[in-house]
Amino acid sequence: MANYYANSFVYPRELTRQGNYCFDIGAYADVWCAKDTGTGETVAIKSWRGAGFDTKTHQKFVDCLNRELTIWSGLSHPNVVQFKGVVPDFGHLPALVMPFYQRRSVIKYIRENQPTRILDLAIDVACGLTYLHSLQRPIDHGDLKGSNILVDDDGRALICDFGLNNLVGGADFNFTTANVAGSCRWMAPEVMKPSDTPAVENESGLYTSTKSDVYSFGMTVLEMFTAEKPFAHLHNDAAVILATIGGRRPNRPTAEKAPQLTDEIWEVIESCWAQDPDQRPTMDMVGKWLQSCI
């Protein structure tokens, strides 16, 4: 299987799985803790969940994965998760190796630690997203939400899983999902109703863009300050989709629910989720506005 990849992608040393159960569960993959037998470093392995593919579909998945990894391996930013390599023989599909973050996702971190400055985490995410959008060939994340943001031992937020919706959302790739709520709660209206946007369809069948990322960022910041998913009062995803397409947004939470959410931060959130994508600010502008809220 290793010959599917450039040598630079295959993790160079042997990894030993730690424990009999996965460390965390994502929407389409399980995250395992493993140890590098050469260095002793603890790493995370993201292993795709679901049935294996036939040979043709498997090769198509590998080709798509290679394209995403070519991009990911060239990135370097303190608020973007580092790509460490691929493990070809960990499960029925090649697994991704990343740094291990004991604190897991930003929402779990906020719930368990109740940090005094949630704004700092939001600024971290804004910096990472600004970096992705500012590259010579801009990268849109396509699925930004709290579960795709990790926190390191220093309390710094890092973006992960950018571009992977191109893999899990592909028509030929059927993965078992544990994401009950779906991503519609963070999804921009033009992504749900693509006829209203000139954005180019990606391999997942979604019309994402840097502008739809800005919308998702606004929803993610709300999620961070409340520690609950957007549109928490709506239990049906269909109702969320109808509300979003119809221009409705979550109400501002009470001070008791989100004590750190100031008027200035709320204004930034509202600007991010404008119905018209052209009316949304760039992530560079959003980051500067949030900095001014400190």
UniProtKB/TrEMBL annotation:
The keyword Kinase applies. Residues 17-294 form the Protein kinase domain. Keywords: ATP-binding, Kinase, Nucleotide-binding, Transferase. GO terms for molecular function: ATP binding; protein serine/threonine kinase activity. The keyword rRNA processing does not apply. Pfam families: PK_Tyr_Ser-Thr. PROSITE patterns: PROTEIN_KINASE_DOM (PS50011), PROTEIN_KINASE_ST (PS00108). This is Kinase-like protein. It comes from Rickenella mellea. The lineage of its organism: Eukaryota, Fungi, Dikarya, Basidiomycota, Agaricomycotina.
